[in-house]
Hints:
Elements: E1 2-9, H1 14-28, E2 32-38, E3 47-55, E4 69-72, H2 75-80, H3 82-87, E5 90-94, E6 107-111, H4 113-120, H5 126-136, H6 142-152, H7 155-173
Helix pairs in contact: 1-6, 4-5, 4-7, 5-7, 6-7
Amino acid sequence: MIKIRIGGWAGQGTVLAGRILATSLALEQGMNVVQKRSYSAAVRSGISYSDIIADEQPLDELVVDSPDHLIVLYQKTLDEWKDIACRSGRLIVDTTRVADTSGIDCEIVKIPAGTIAQELGTSKAANMVLLGALAASSEVDLDSLKKTVSKNLPERYRELNLEALQKGYEYVVEGKP
């Protein structure tokens, strides 16, 4: 079983990233998957997140209180979730928007996802850079994510998001500082 939470500020693409990840795990990797998403009622304000649970066996669990992987795109989100981060197996943060990970005792993968995405043309692809980083550090398959992006995103966004996935993966695999 794998439990993943993707969190950030509303408007950062946490719901889209969760949908892409859940679809990839279910349809491309053949796992049983549940996904829950939550976002603030205010547009582009407040914490937004997606929870994904996947397993090869039927699922009877619906709560992600101790994720295996916690992906965070925004400092205020991490500040509010410090207790969850301390219970997680791995924390993956966008260092473009998350500067302080002090007091968190788990494996931390730091990647400047917003900067990498901006170099590709838009900071809005930071969510896909972080999914690529997840694939490099977990059982999530990069090729499955790419197939899901290719099948589910409008053509005008596909190449950018595919490149963002690849860049995030390469950053972690190559062990960039």
